[in-house]
Design brief:
By secondary structure, the chain is of the alpha/beta class. 26% of the residues lie in helices and 25% in strands. A six-stranded mixed beta sheet has the order 3-1-6-7-11-10. Strand 8, helix 5 and strand 9 form a beta-alpha-beta unit. The radius of gyration is 15 Å and the shape is globular.
């Protein structure tokens, strides 16, 4: 696959580590050129990730993750150059949904493939993109999905759901299903 076929990841501080690292690496491995942007950051700037785990508490635990280097300039992005968008979760969506430029960027992908995981549904809800859609997300985001007019998909933590061009999953443990379904929506063919 030519590396002029481009995908965009919306990042930000305290994005979930696996939910940005794994899609970036896996989609790059498939031959896509994957750009990661963050409002107010330029190529070479870093964002801090968070590692979330399920350790027996009523909700996930959170630890500081890695520094992830941004490789594209949010202010200079032409979304027409991209065939799809990835929205990771973590704590990033809770504040990114308040950034109108980020919301406008997300809205520009309304007719293209979007992969969204975990708390990323908060951004889609803020962008008004969930009405009439079947959506998975971290279970604590169910009320936001429903208030935005979506139908919450109560699926297992290793599953994903595709609704037309939107592929969603609850958490990073669903990466095999989520990324496989997203690759299929993108039209990628994987043969061994």
């Amino acid at each position: 696959m030519a590396d002029d076929i481009r995908l965009l990841i919306l990042g930000g501080d305290y994005v979930e580590d696996y939910e940005i690292m794994v899609p970036f690496q896996a989609l790059s491995m498939l031959g896509y050129k994957v750009d990661v942007v963050c409002p107010d950051k330029k190529p070479g700037d870093k964002i801090v990730t968070a590692i979330h785990d399920f350790e027996g508490a009523q909700t996930y635990s959170e630890k500081r993750g890695h520094n992830f280097e941004i490789n594209a300039d949010f202010a200079k992005i032409n979304t027409d150059d991209y065939i799809g968008l990835i929205i990771p979760g973590g704590r990033m969506p809770e504040y990114m949904r308040m950034n109108q430029k980020a919301i406008d960027l997300v809205k520009s992908f309304s007719d293209r493939p979007i992969a969204c995981i975990c708390h990323g549904a908060q951004i889609l809800a803020a962008a008004g993109m969930l009405k009439g859609r079947k959506v998975s997300c971290y279970p604590a985001c169910q009320p936001e999905v429903e208030l935005a007019g979506g139908t919450y998909a109560d699926i297992g933590m290793t599953e994903a759901v595709t609704d037309d061009l939107l592929v969603t999953a609850p958490v990073w443990t669903a990466h095999p299903a989520w990324l496989s379904q997203f690759a299929a929506v993108l039209g990628a063919r994987i043969s061994l």
